[in-house]
Design brief:
50 strands, Transducin/WD40 repeat-like superfamily protein, WD40_rpt
């Protein structure tokens, strides 16, 4: 279900990992206590630090700062000269982290029907506390390092002042500024002010051994709580309210034999938040936060203890609610109890990594995992060969295309493909409120509409099997003609296409094609005819050198033949007449020599050409090979059914490099070019009245009006959008997480 987004090879195993909620930053610590901050979007290391020992650069920097401030002789040994020792935790802290931590805790608490009014009241942003600084916080055995990534100035707090595990407290008194709690090896939790850098309070009497994990959350009563897990296997609950003087445990319960390894908060739709804990006893337990009773306990992977756990909520996988990792090569997903409650592999990570990094004798093993707090389609894992950032793979979803709904009808239907079967899904939405009028209520933080009745939208659905067979079971793209009379299915990997007549599901046209796009106004389509490229033979390992040479020569010949077949492929336009016959209107569009890599349907036909940009082998390994996201066409909106067959780097172009001008629009009537060359969009969407169009790029969407003449209206900064559909001058945009 996941594909590679970014990969950074490392020499040592990555044992700690954390993502920033709003910046594309990822901090890791390896087994040798090297800490590095990596920008996974631009694939650049921002900062590196030897946290285990003494970092000479920081020591020199501190001495220079002291001299500049007029201190001639340093008094005593600077804290920067203390050896860090083993890294226990790495994290980020700034106003964004604080805001989203508080938002997560508040929105999880507000889900419970019993939640008090001030929890469900509109969320006001907490007062800025970090004064524009972005802290990287490294918690080591002998000290904690607070490093500002903006000014690169740091603050080291020695061990005698605090200890190993930490959590930022969301509520603090004005004078103390942000507070950070550290869990100690002596079972004491010490709270440090990030303004005065002094201890402000201690929580004692909860644990008999060392504290392994800390987390803040909010109860549905609105009380801020701190939960700690220890090596004694206890889960202890403390009050994190700043007015509290009672620093004794509110509650203590035995959670795991052999120690608690991690605690995570789970937001439950329509219920009080839950806690997920993992332990050395190889079990994962789920706890209710009202009664603190155990709700479920499972052993996700027999014989192996989980080292990482993440609460996961992805709209494309509603049946999965927890991700976890053990020391193997998988990310495991646990199903929600309303489904099967089974644990299944979400992803086999060794299949994502470029093969040159997997040594034949080395088996990939995961040592740490984190899900992105705001973008659930991103999951980062630390392994013995490097850092893997993976994203949700749209190819793992069944391809679907909606049929146009008749005016005034409440019956909607869509066609989808599962394995080698074409299926028809019909559904009706029954709601007393007229859904077409929409709601004029405003959305609350929790995503509910204010002023909405709590009445559920009832969905009645019927699934029908269509008897016409589907010739292939590989990945396919579905798209609908403008009239809704014809459905196109393209199998780009084969390459093959079929056009089905919706009235009786008979096949009216088929052949070899990798790309297909519909005209918005008539039942016309363009396709990239492709001669079937010969299979490239596999070069055998070992064996005689003569055979290997022959095989290599045959492979080179086949590759050349495949390249010439790709460049010889032409864009052809066909029309479907009322009698159901398909006729060729134009054998070849555009007299350009470059191979075609994309077709976009709409009121004009968009053709993308491959430009000859060279990529050095070094850059090629750094750029992870990702196909840009394929799209199935959305009914009569004329959205292109577009997949790129570029060199795999199309969605990974660096932001600094200007996009090549390789996209030409053509008229469906005269087949002549319209306007000049443009940069190739990821996808295009034209409205049904042919008045507006949207072209999507990596970081933004360009919106233009087409009548009375073409006019650029502006662009919207919605990055990484995966598709859009027009409806009455409104554009509904889908991103990997949001509509």
């Amino acid at each position: 279900m996941l594909r590679l987004r970014a990969f950074r090879p490392t020499n040592d195993k990555i044992v700690k990992i954390q993502l920033h909620p709003t910046h594309p930053w990822l901090v890791t610590s390896d087994a040798s206590d090297h800490v590095s901050v990596w920008n996974w979007e631009h694939r650049q290391v921002i900062y590196e630090l030897k946290a285990g020992g003494v970092d000479e650069r920081r020591l020199v920097g501190v001495k220079l700062e002291k001299l500049a401030e007029g201190e001639s002789e340093p008094k005593g040994k600077p804290t920067e000269a203390i050896r860090g020792g083993s890294v226990k935790q790495v994290t980020f802290y700034d106003d964004d982290v604080r805001f989203w931590q508080l938002w997560r805790n508040r929105s999880a608490a507000a889900e419970a029907p019993s939640s008090v009014n001030h929890v469900t009241a509109p969320f006001s942003s907490p007062a800025a506390s970090s004064k524009g600084r972005h802290f990287l916080v490294i918690c080591c055995e002998n000290k904690a390092i607070f490093l500002d990534l903006v000014t690169m100035r740091g603050r080291d707090v020695p061990k005698q002042d605090l200890d190993n595990n930490m959590e930022f407290l969301s509520r603090s008194t004005a004078g103390d500024g942000p507070l950070v709690a550290f869990g100690g090896s002596d079972g004491v939790i010490r709270v440090l002010s990030m303004i005065t850098w002094k201890l402000v309070r201690r929580y004692t009497g909860g644990h008999k051994g060392s504290i392994s994990s800390l987390m803040t959350f909010m109860a549905s009563s609105g009380e801020a709580l701190l939960v700690s897990g220890g090596s004694d296997g206890l889960l202890v609950l403390w009050s994190a309210e700043h007015g509290q003087d009672s620093l004794v445990p509110k509650l203590s319960l035995k959670a795991h034999d052999g120690g608690v390894l991690g605690v995570e908060l789970s937001r439950v739709i329509g219920g009080a938040p839950q806690l997920i804990t993992i332990g050395a006893d190889k079990t994962l337990a789920i706890w209710d936060t009202i009664s603190f009773k155990e709700l479920r306990r499972i052993k996700p992977v027999p014989k192996l203890a989980c080292h990482s756990v993440a609460s996961w909520c992805h709209p494309r996988a509603p049946n999965l609610d927890i991700l976890t990792c053990v020391k193997d090569s998988h990310i495991w997903a646990i199903e929600h109890p309303t489904y099967s409650a089974l644990t299944r592999p979400l992803c086999e990570l060794s299949s994502l990594v470029p093969p040159q990094f997997l040594a034949s004798n080395k088996k990939l093993t995961v040592y740490s995992m984190v899900a992105h707090p705001l973008q659930p389609h991103l999951v980062a894992t630390g392994t013995n060969i490097g850092v893997i950032v993976s994203e949700f793979d749209s190819r793992s979803l069944p391809p679907v295309a909606p049929l146009p709904t008749l005016p005034g009808s409440r019956e909607h239907s869509a066609v989808y493909v599962v394995e080698r079967e074409l299926k028809l899904l019909s559904f009706q939405l029954s709601n007393t409120v007229n859904p077409s009028l929409g709601s004029n209520g405003s959305l609350t933080e929790t995503g509910r509409i204010r002023g909405d009745s709590s009445e559920q939208l009832q969905v009645k659905q019927i699934k029908k099997h269509i008897s016409t067979p589907v010739p292939h079971d590989s990945y396919s793209v579905l798209s609908m003609s403008s009239s809704g009379k014809y459905l196109a299915v393209v199998w780009p990997d084969i390459p093959y296409f079929s056009i089905y007549k919706v009235s009786d599901w008979s096949i009216v046209d088929s052949g070899s094609a990798r790309l297909l796009a519909w005209d918005t106004c008539r039942d016309k389509f363009a396709l990239l005819e492709s001669a079937v490229a010969p299979r490239i033979p596999i070069i055998p390992k070992g064996g005689s050198s003569r055979k290997a040479k022959e095989a290599a020569a045959a492979a080179a010949q086949a590759a050349a033949a495949a390249a010439s077949a790709a460049s010889a492929a032409t864009v052809q336009v066909r029309i479907l007449l009322d009698d159901g016959t398909s006729n060729v209107l134009m054998r070849s569009i555009g007299g350009r020599n470059e191979p075609v890599i994309g077709l976009h349907g709409g009121a004009l036909l968009g053709v993308a050409y491959r430009t000859s940009r060279r990529i050095s082998p070094v850059a090629a390994t750094a750029i992870s090979t990702i196909q840009s996201m394929p799209l199935s066409g959305f009914g009569g909106s004329g959205l292109s059914s577009f997949t790129t067959i570029d060199d795999g780097y199309s969605s990974q172009k660096s932001l600094a490099e200007p996009a090549p001008q390789n996209f030409q629009l053509y008229s469906w009537e005269t087949f002549q070019p319209v306007g000049g060359l443009l940069p190739q969009p990821e996808w295009t969407s034209w409205d049904q009245t042919v008045e507006y169009c949207a072209f999507a790029y990596q970081q933004y969407i360009v919106i233009s009006s087409l009548r009375p003449q073409y006019r650029y209206l502006g662009d919207v900064a919605i990055p990484h959008a995966t598709g859009a559909v027009w409806h009455r001058r409104q554009l509904f945009v889908a991103t990997p997480t949001t509509i």
